[in-house]
Amino acid sequence: MQAAALIPAPDALPIAAGWLEGLLIITFALHILLVNTVLGGAIVCSVRSVVSKNSLSIKKVSKVLPSLFALAVNLGVAPLLFVQMLYGQYMYTSSILMGVYWLSVVFLAIIAYYALYVFAGRYGGHSKFSLSIFLSSAAMLCIGLVMSNNMTLMLRPDVWSAYFASPDGTILNFDDPTMGLRYLHVVVASIAVGGLVLALVARYKMAQESPELAVQEERLGLNIFLFASLVQILVGVTLYFALPAHVHALFSGGSEFYTGSLLIALAFVAMLLFQAAARNLYGTITALVFTVLVMAGLRALIRKAMLDPYGGIAALPVQAEYSPFLMFIISLTFGLVAIAYMIKLAMRSNEEA
């Protein structure tokens, strides 16, 4: 059976696809930054808790992770909805093919969230509670693995026919050479951002209590970020060459837009490494935000190139309904303002405590 015959008919879009794709890129960048922060912070806490059973920096980092986890989950709703609007015929199908694992994400998220709270409240006490951060990290790593499988399986209608041999919702995409690399790309990026979290906490939460230790921890955090970023470059280059030939060709001069976008991304990566090597914490964070935004754009281009042979989104019908879109923009604006205000209150309460 031809792959195109397995793709369901798409629904009409309420507005032009370009608007939805742009919002998808922006909201995904915000979401993945928080995901990197929480997962990376948990991994750093896991490793450091083995070395020290009563580390001041880990105590400080662990206190912010549960709230950031909740924000990451909530900010993940928007890009998920945009993906479903633009690529629903692909994503819904891949979600069904791996339905057992896809549904497990909910339970894994509950486990990860609860374990973060246990660790934040009990770290420094009985050693058995330190195991909770390993449980949380493992649950989040499993969530990432499921997500990577789904986001790559939706790009491969040519393998969907495996459903007829295995219709029980347990199909995974491990045969795809890019799946493991995409997953590793997220994990290594999270470790890098976890280093930044350690550096930030050291500067703003430890400086008054232990100035010398704060300087050491900030330096360690930036070193973790720099080393993980260098590893990330290796992973990224490997992923680039593992892309399908027609996608790789677009970034290698086959398309001026694709090639130019790649060069812009490389420029931001160079800027990021320069700021990290210079031990400029603010500069590193700023460069990181822009780099992630550009990388989210590259991710969208890869997705487009992968799905264009099957119709992509260019030919999707549009039935203009602007009022829901305007309501979303208004709600998003108020939501971001509310989140910023809550973060401000949380930081103030932490300082008073």
Most strands sheet: none
Number of helices: 10
Helix content: over 70%
- Tally of strands: 0
CATH architecture descriptor text: Up-down Bundle
CA(first)-CA(last) distance: 64 Å
Overall geometric form: globular
Radius of gyration: 21 Å
CATH topology heading:
Formate dehydrogenase/DMSO reductase fold
CATH uppermost class = Mainly Alpha
What class, by secondary structure content?
mainly alpha
Task: Please give a structural write-up.
The chain is mainly alpha-helical and 353 residues long. The protein has one domain (12-316): Formate dehydrogenase/DMSO reductase fold (Up-down Bundle), CATH 1.20.1630. It is built from 10 helices and no strands. The protein has helices spanning 17-51, 56-97, 99-122, 127-153, 179-205, 211-242, 245-254, 256-277, 281-307, 322-352. Helix 1 (17-51) packs across helix 2 (56-97) and helix 1 runs antiparallel to helix 4 (127-153). 36% of the residues are buried. The mean pLDDT is 89.
Key terms for this structure?
0% strand, Formate dehydrogenase/DMSO reductase fold, 353 residues
